[in-house]
Write a structure and sequence with these properties.
- The complex is a heterodimer of chains A (695) and B (408).
- Chain A is mostly helical and 695 residues long.
- Chain A is 69% helix and 0% strand.
- In chain A, α28 runs parallel beside α30, α38 runs parallel beside α40 and α39 runs antiparallel to α40.
- Chain B has 408 residues and is an alpha/beta fold.
- Chain B has a six-stranded parallel sheet, with helices on both faces. In chain B, strands 11-7-10-9-8-12 form a six-stranded mixed sheet, with helices on one face.
- Chain B is globular and about 60 Å long.
- Chain B has 15 helices and twelve strands.
- The chains are: A mainly alpha (695), B alpha/beta (408).
């Protein structure tokens, strides 16, 4: 494993140890950040220092203590706990020190600390941190301390305690919480309602059911009961949950709670609940429909799929859509496909669309026909049908598509060829190659495009032959792309490039130029050697085609070749083309050391005569995070025709160098302020400068 | 070309939801007046109001503004409200929104007021992490679908409560990691295509845990509702480095501090551990053991029930037994982006790519790593019960008490 920095044990401290406020170097995005240095040993007893520290103080003491706590064995916890409790009891201790003591007690505290923490619960500033200690303690005395504090607190502090009691979920606290259901303070009543719901016992369910609250709070009670049911479900109390949900599903209750309850019912008693859920799907209430659909997604039995499929034809259009979506959400094809196939012909457009989309996951070989019918209709749904055909994976689908493509009429055939290519149906290659000679141009073009995706060496050879006879530029381009596509998929492309190179030997000049252009799309050593041979050609056109091919090469292998041509002053056009290639290739490799990239750009800049190439060099330099790159950019600040690009490049690069090279970055920006006449540029430079100065 | 998510008929048939809105309205005590814009009546080539997804944005700061722009790019979305505790950010976002949606866009400093609006279908939550659970759960209660930025939770229990709320109220809740598919799609495809065979190990690069914040009180030089910024987090005095939304985890913003964030472990971990969980399709699972680093230069290792190992550290890579297994169709977004995926699910009521369960399980892996780093020892984990069997000390770290009056 590669690591930028040390971690491990150090991070054990970092997690609970503050770092000095001094800012660390900015880490690369997503990279492992440098952990802070281990804290210095504080002078004096760090625990004693906790008694006096305020926010922002005592970092060394806290770091040292944290280190000790993390390293401590359980049998040492008691001694540590005593020291933290002393901080809480100290009259002079400030909030920051007390908060820290509570954080540490969360790690090492025992029942011994509960009486003192209980005292902190009534302190409105410290109550929250005291609850932090008690919340995770399993001992019942922690819960009792919270209950006892209810009578000694008011307002928000008491609400916080009620919340934590709810979070601890101790059944015996329900009675204490229930006392607040008729409190005068609405926020307290609300907190109590929710806390009782969270405890989620049969008793808390009953207390909520019988709660006498104001009309305005009834929805909150419903919600708490819903939560209660869900928690019971998770606790394995299916009987209790079922009772809660059944009660909430009663017909007199509001639709929103009934709809949520029906989903709960479905989860706890799947077999019995199915009729109720299907009724909900058939109802005229949208909330019930949606809840039913959500519930149907969750029910695992295969029979549920069949039940939904059976109901689909008789549902309202909106429920049909929900039903189809539920089937998709269930992800089980068996029993669903035929019903969804049928809905592709539904009278309602939204249902048809839902069905067409759903056939992507739910369809099988029987869905190919219905989907092609939708493609043929050339309606808004056709693109959805095409997409579903592309994504439909099931036994025999590929073969069925090939068969139907062969017999399809031209307008659909071109589309289906595209589908076959998208699906990478390799078995379709012979058919697609045949379609390359189809009388219909759209079919020919679709086939030429597709063959690059699914063709093999045999098809590549055929395409090379066809290329000789092809006079249509559009088809030629398609052939080029397909040959390159096949070659790229053929391992290292060696076999393919060999075939292309062999063809060059017998081709006329025009075709040779064309084939050189294909080789740059293929790449690889063989191809590169062949293009290099082209550089030696006595034909200027061929030589120039070779330079163009190298200029667009997929990696930087021909950098030196192009550099040599760029330095050769015998042909200006060749020089410019080669220099453009040099600049492009320098920018390609992501891992080229920055200093090397600068050196290469410097060479390119010295060769550049026209502003276009100088601008391209500046563009490349702006991405090289190296002070020398900035220096080189600055040299162009006075060069007419490129100075604006130089300003922009500097403004892009300078901020990213500012952490390490603040002086150079600021100097460059200040020079822009002096040299530029454009107010927009000046403002931008000023803003960047201000950011650097703020650091 | 009309994309699937834009199909108006589908939209009409399933989007006009009022689930729980009756309840929300009944329970509302902070209902704020709002204005229906002229835009809401249609025109300008936009779908009429009955076909729109009406959204509110909570936290339009750095990442929030990015998300917001993405949502604004959908013709069916109408953002009518924005909320932030920083007035300048809130006003800036409101001004941007008004340019597109008209003067009816309202700004709020308290998310509860925004969530009380019955006209809002969905909200986008991009606050600091310590607010995610409280806001998301409240939004579910109010009948809103939620797109919540990653990491979805600050604690393990908060994440589970978010999943429970989504299911309890039948809400679409999507996490907000766009990078699972965006950054690692070819690698993911190879995994789902079975090219690695049975996956044995995955290496996951991301930063480390957050730290306790010990910044002093500083003069408040911005218009911020500090009490609301802190919300459920422990009381602490204002300092700009405590609450800045800077992306870098360098001690200058909330992502650095454990009261508000899990640090690099959850920030980039939410993307990359998410990707790893997706590669091996353990989106609804979790490890059974977490091993501390073997040495000062190592990271934690997660052990799964089938023996697969997931390492914190190294370049993102997958190692398998190289005996190819049958390919399976790889789940992808519905549409071209995670935003489109969420909006489509709002319409179809299906679960999103980054369904909150997946988001929660991913965040849990990150939190488990942080707990293991903090305690420096091997931990056993029960991913079904979501507890450390027989380990009170570690169990206490699954959650934190929230400052009054906040609860989940």
């Amino acid at each position: 494993m590669k690591w930028n920095v040390g971690r491990g044990v150090v991070w054990a401290l970092v997690m609970v140890t503050a770092i000095p406020v001094a800012v660390q170097a900015r880490p690369r995005r997503g990279a492992t950040p440098t952990p802070p240095p281990t804290a210095a040993q504080p002078a004096g007893d760090p625990y004693q220092q906790l008694h006096t520290i305020d926010f922002g103080e005592g970092e060394d003491a806290m770091a040292s203590i944290t280190q000790e706590v993390v390293a401590a064995k359980p049998d040492q916890y008691l001694a540590l706990e005593t020291k933290f409790l002393a901080v809480l009891e100290a009259k002079d201790a400030k909030l920051a020190g007390r908060q820290f003591a509570c954080r540490m007690l969360k790690l090492v505290g025992s029942t011994k600390c509960i009486p003192i923490i209980a005292g902190c619960l009534t302190d409105e500033k410290l109550s929250h941190m005291a609850r932090t200690v008690l919340q995770g303690m399993t001992d019942a005395s922690a819960g009792q301390a919270l209950v006892d504090a209810l009578g000694k607190t008011t307002g928000k502090t008491r609400i916080g305690i009620i919340n934590t009691i709810g979070d601890r979920r101790e059944p015996r606290t329900v009675a204490a919480l229930a006392k607040f259901l008729d409190d005068k303070d609405e926020a307290t009543v609300l907190a109590a309602i929710r806390a009782i719901g969270r405890v989620a016992t049969n008793e808390s369910g009953d207390v909520l059911k019988q709660a006498k609250v104001s009309e305005a709070m009834k929805p909150d009670v419903y919600e708490a009961r819903l939560l209660c049911g869900q928690r019971m479900e998770k606790d394995g109390n299916a009987v209790g949950a079922q009772a809660v949900y059944a009660d909430l599903y009663e017909s007199g209750n509001p639709a929103w709670i009934r709809s949520a309850a029906v989903a709960g019912l479905a989860r706890v008693d799947q077999r019995k609940a199915l009729p109720a859920v299907l009724d909900a799907l058939k109802s005229n209430d949208r909330l019930m429909n949606e809840a039913a659909a959500a519930a149907l997604m969750e029910l695992p039995q295969a029979s549920v799929t069949e039940a939904i499929a059976k109901e689909l034809p008789s549902l309202s259009p909106a429920s049909k859509v929900l039903g189809v979506n539920a089937l998709t959400g269930r992800g089980l094809k068996e029993g669903a496909t035929a019903a969804v196939n049928a809905l592709t012909k539904d009278a309602d457009a939204s249902v048809r669309q839902a069905a067409v989309i759903a056939l992507s996951p739910l369809g099988d070989v029987t869905s190919v026909g219905p989907l092609i019918e939708v493609v043929k209709s050339q309606t808004d749904l056709s693109s959805d049908a095409i997409q579903s055909l592309k994504e439909l994976f099931a036994d025999g689908v590929g073969e069925e598509l090939i068969k139907r493509t062969e017999s399809a009429e031209a307008s659909v055939k071109a589309t289906l060829i595209g589908v076959l290519a998208s699906r990478k149906e390799l078995k379709a290659a012979p058919l697609v190659l045949k379609c390359v000679s189809d009388p219909d141009k759209s079919v020919r073009l679709a086939a030429l495009k597709a063959i690059g995706t699914i063709g093999t060496q045999a098809e590549l050879d055929s395409l090379l032959v066809r290329l000789s006879d092809c006079k249509d530029n559009g088809e030629r381009d398609a052939i080029d792309q397909s040959i390159a596509g096949i070659a790229r998929r053929n391992g290292d492309g060696k076999k393919s490039s060999t075939a292309i190179i062999a063809r060059i030997a017998t081709a006329d000049a025009e075709l040779q130029i064309h084939l050189l252009n294909i080789l740059n799309m293929v790449g690889g050593k063989n191809a590169l050697d062949a293009v290099r041979n082209g550089l030696k050609s006595s034909s200027l056109e061929l030589k120039r085609a070779a330079i163009r091919a190298l200029k667009e090469w997929p990696d930087d292998s021909p950098l030196d070749d192009l550099k040599a041509i760029a330095e050769d002053k015998s042909d200006k056009t060749n020089q410019v083309l080669a220099l453009q290639g040099v600049i492009r290739l320098i920018g390609l490799p992501k891992r080229r050391p920055a200093d090397k990239a600068v050196a290469l750009y410097q060479d390119a800049m010295s060769l550049a005569v026209r502003p276009e190439e100088k601008r391209a060099v500046l563009g490349g330099l702006s991405s090289v995070k190296h002070p020398e790159a900035l220096k080189l950019i600055v040299t162009c600040f006075d060069t007419e025709g490129v100075k604006n690009e130089a300003f922009n490049a500097a403004m892009k690069l300078a901020p990213s160098l500012a952490d390490q090279n603040a002086g150079e970055s600021k100097a460059a920006l200040e020079q822009i302020l002096k040299s530029s006449a454009d107010p927009g540029t000046k403002n931008k430079a000023k803003a960047e400068l201000a950011k650097i100065n703020k650091k | 070309m009309k994309t699937r998510h834009q199909e108006p008929n589908l939209l009409v048939s399933v989007t006009r939801r009022s689930f729980l809105k009756a309840a929300a309205a009944a329970a509302t005590t902070l209902a704020a007046p709002y204005v229906i814009t002229t835009n809401a009546l249609g025109g300008d080539g936009r779908p009429p109001a009955s076909e729109r997804i009406v959204m509110g944005c909570i936290g339009p700061g750095r990442q929030g503004s990015v998300d917001l722009k993405n949502f604004m790019g959908f013709p069916e979305v109408q953002v009518v409200a924005v909320c932030d505790v920083r007035k300048a950010i809130c006003d800036r976002a409101k001004s941007e929104l008004q340019k597109k949606y008209g003067p009816g866009v309202k700004a709020y400093g308290d998310f509860r007021e925004l969530l009380d609006r019955p006209d809002i279908d969905a909200v986008h939550v991009a606050t600091p992490d310590h607010w995610h659970a409280v806001i998301t759960i409240t939004a579910c209660r109010k009948g809103k679908d939620v797109y919540c930025q990653k990491p979805e939770s600050l604690t393990i229990r908060e994440g589970r409560a978010m999943v429970d709320a989504a299911r309890r109220y039948n809400r679409v809740v999507s996490g907000g990691s766009q990078r699972v598919l965006q950054d690692f799609r070819p690698l993911a495809q190879k995994c789902w295509d079975g090219q690695f065979g049975k996956i044995k190990e995955i290496f996951v690069p991301c930063g480390g845990p957050s730290k306790r914040c010990n910044l002093p009180a500083a003069p408040m030089d911005e218009d911020i509702d500090w009490e609301m910024w802190l919300g459920p987090a422990p009381y602490a005095p204002y300092h700009p480095y405590r609450c800045s939304g800077i992306y870098a985890i360098n001690g200058k913003g909330w992502r650095s501090w454990s009261d508000y964030s899990g640090g690099g472990m959850t920030d980039w971990g939410a993307h990359r551990f998410g990707a790893a969980m997706f590669f091996c399709d353990k989106r609804g699972e979790g490890p059974v053991e977490i091993l501390p680093p073997e040495n000062a230069r190592g990271g934690v290792t997660y052990v799964f029930a089938d023996g697969m190992l997931m390492h914190h550290g190294g370049g993102m890579r997958v190692e398998g037994d190289n005996n190819p297994v049958a390919p399976r169709p790889m789940p992808v977004y519905r549409g071209k982006s995670i935003y489109c995926d969420f909006l489509t699910c709002v319409k179809t009521r299906q679960r999103s790519f980054r369904d909150i369960e997946f988001g929660h399980r991913t965040a849990t892996v990150c939190h488990l790593g942080n707990i293991c780093y903090a305690l420096g020892r091997k931990l056993k984990w029960d991913p079904v019960k979501e507890e450390f069997p027989g380990d009170d000390q570690a169990n206490a770290m699954r959650d934190r008490a929230r400052r009054e009056p906040w609860t989940i």
